[in-house]
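## retry 2 of 3
previous attempt timed out at serialization; input unchanged, resubmitting
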Amino acid sequence: MRKIDSLIIKSFIGPFLITFFVVVFILLLQFMLKYFDDILGKDLSIDVLLEFLFYFAVRITPDALPLAILLSSIMTFGNLGENNELVAIKSSGVSLIRTLFPLFIISILITFFAFFSNNNFVPKANLKALSLLYDIKRKKPSMDLKEGQFYSGIPGYTIKVQKKIDDKLLQGVIIYDHVTYPGNNRVILSDSSYMYSVLNNRYLIFELFDGHSFTEVPSAKSQVKKINQFYRNEFSSMKIVFDMSSFDLERTKEELFAGDYRMKNINQLSNSIDSLGYNKSMQKYIMLKTSNSFYRYHMKNKFVFPSGVDFIRSELKEESLVHDYYSFVDTTNYFSDSFFLDNKIKLDINNIDKIGTNKVYTMALNNARNIKTNLSINSAKIKSHNYEINKNKIELFKKYAQAFACISMFLIGAPLGSLIKKGGIGIPVIISIAFYIIYYVLNILGLKWAREGIITPELAAWQANLILLPIGFFLLYHSRKDSKIFEFDYYRDYFNKFFKRYKNH
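## retry succeeded, writing output
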């Protein structure tokens, strides 16, 4: 039995490693295409590009592992079935469940590794990858002089080139110097120029030949723009040195991005959820406190005091206000102008003539609108807290669900491979892509619905597994019975028998 286990494990490890790196490469290529416009033309060094690719490769590891397990398990058992090795194993008295057992243990180990990676490696990789991406987006494009166009990428200068002989030799150069004097008070014209960099591209030097410089010196005392002096110089050779430090990649402090939910592990996400829940409760308290003058007993006994905010009781001095706080819920949608006019604003009919009907209604309508605006603002803040809580909860439960997806994909792939009895990279790849698309779409829809509050974050993170896992058990049940659900002859014989019965009747 050990030889059979060793054979199956060896048949699985090779395809798994190959498919894992292939999947990582494909997903990484997808990310690179997504951010291609941000990277192109930035003249990034090889070190920065490799660092960027490495961090993004770690980021997509949780998505690559389930697909790699699915594809490699289909290929492994498809090859065993295609070569009749699986039939020989079953004929020796070894059940399919026992045959799957060593790879099931490996898939569990991969699941634990995926969870450990999600909780420890991925948040750090997200922090470094997204901070580096932010810095790359902010970086200026590399200097690109085009013929007949003004270039203002160098701070304080505008350059125009009539013709480029090559990357270094230029003809018909015009340089507007905004550093010496503001505006276009200094212009340099040159017949030709030789461009090169020094000190590891730290400085760019323009060596100009056969040209003129024109300088207008404005008057410093006069408030009206007035030219005080004018200089015209002719030169056969002149050098201008440009500081290229503005083209360097400036790294932002990573601590500025640490508050994002994608950069947190399970403990940090739990703390963030508690903090956001506390802020949400405080916002509800503020909403009630500002509304106490016009709002008291609506929808009683439906608001529960949150834990951890007992000190609020001391701020609620009146017993009725404490009662209102307990019974308070978000009621922005409930309130409207007509609600206040019909239910909250009681007019003394006898005093209408004294005050004036129009004035009374105007005051009532303005009061209702002010109340509605106040409640709408507070409600928007509460909804914002809910949105942030949902995002953090989704990320928290997704760390568990993504790891468990390795087991779900194995329970689909291994029985499926034994049923289709096809190895290689043909049919297994097509089937794997189909199931992974289902898994991916379910995850995307779940995340979108949870952020909008349509479903709970727990269901959003686990719904792909909840749908795919029964499919895995269904395939496992049929693979144990050697069903022919993936053979065309099975369905042809079934329909022939059905039509024969139909004719006999």
